[in-house]
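Q: Hi! First time doing this. I have a protein sequence and I read that you can turn it into a structure. Is that right? Here it is:
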Amino acid sequence: MKAVLIYPPANSRNSEAFPLPSLATAALAGALDRAGHTCAQADLDLAWHRGLKRSFTPRELEVLHNRERASAHARGEKREPAFQKAARLLAAGLPAGDLYGITLVDMNSDPLMLNLAAALAALLRAERGRPVVIGSRALPRQAYAQILREYPVFDYAVYTQDGEKALLDILARSGGAAVRPQGALQLQGGRILIHRSVPVLMPPPSPLYQDDILKAYALDDRRLLASYDAGYPFVAGLFKDNRTSLVVPYTFETTCPGACAFCSNNNGFPSNAKPPARVVEELARLKARGVTGIYFINSAFNNSYKYADELCGLMIKARLNLPWSDCANVREIDEELLRKMRRAGAVKLAFGMETASPRLLRYIRKGATAERVSRCLKASHRLGIWNHIELIGGLPTETADDTRATCDFIRGHARVIDTYSLNPFFLNRGSPFYRSPAEFGLRLRPSGRACDYLDTDERVGDFSERFDEEGGPAWEQKTLQIKASTAALAAAIEEAAGAKWIDFEHIWLLMALYRRLGHSRKKAIKEHADLFTSRFRPFSGDAFVEACRYRKHEYRRELAPRAGAGKGRDGL
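A: Yes, that's right. Below is the predicted 3D structure, encoded as structure tokens:
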């Protein structure tokens, strides 16, 4: 059977100068291919931002962003010409298939992605008569139930972590097999059926990137520099040979042995890391197809010291010469491994520090100390690796002294930290904080209301369950403290590095600079990156940005009540 996998347009999925190809559709394509099915992929986000969106007037674009009008269109209550036009344009190049799958990965609260996905689904079902499936592991089952009610044009919604298996089941079911698609909701006769999931440890995906998509994402230096402030005399000499770059995501492990209290990872699963030799083989195939850089998406490159050491050795032996970035933990690392990671191609490492408070690091079960993080950052910097740290503002029980310790760490390490991720704390349902709140001095607050899972201020799915702290602030005060703490961390980063280095990676530019200058010239790479990023044009925008401000701490982090909803919890 044949599936068509779709990466839908989004208004602001990516605020960097250039995005990466969708790992979601490539990973699903790989799983379907291995199961004997044929598959086609359509990157409609790229098509949208490179031209399709200019086919619409400002008034039409306003309609496309309107959630209520999109829902009415999907329910057939009022057909909107703007949605009909958009669906026609998006469906024009889609091949015929037995099933259409639309990934909702990185769905922002801006409803454009969901609205366009629904308009497209309505057309596909009406004119091609084949089932349409949506999915992304980031959204809870309750959110998908709400989507199926508000946009009743999707046949299935896959909510399970192992979406590949559910999609294979749905494909088999479409072919007449009596299979129950575990981990999916099904809209049938106006009713939502729940096919509950059983936790399964799935192997990491082996992405199957489509040739035309890789070609579309390949980027030469002229196009790269055209999106940055690169009109400096030295640029012509540095980029005189006009090389082509192609950076793609890749995963070799989805499990994590860590026990961080804020994380929804299930560390009860054994490692599912691919054999190192297989990783190198797959990377070599990607390189043969023109890939010049790898954006690893793992829980960490070095969950096991032995594994990371073996993988680096094989990468060096194979002479891959592929620059790469990944997360790294400080539990399973030393300077010798860092040196080997550099030789294997590491140009950027993101360390999940979260806080520099010794007390909080113990409380969240980070398995690291601020002193160890400090040594690791300094060693990595000496080796010429670009250092990135991840921070959380307003952790449970956090005090002003805890926040101050992290601010002091930021200022004291400004020379060796290059970029930052910063997030206000939100309580995740799958985390130890949520599963065992009393153990951490927390009291959960059931909402007692029907919640609007599609009305969050940052990204759909990134919302906080409400809680009170034993002997500490209630939720109403805690949410203010989360904002204040995050704002204080943002101010410290802005003082140390500038707000433009919070939540921005500029990975295409960074890898292009490392390919030319090498680790030994990190100081020059940093200087060039600072110059170039003083002005840049985001992928989803039409104008250059000259100033960045961090405002994420001002967002509401809890679920909103659904308009017109009475009391009582959502049954799904």
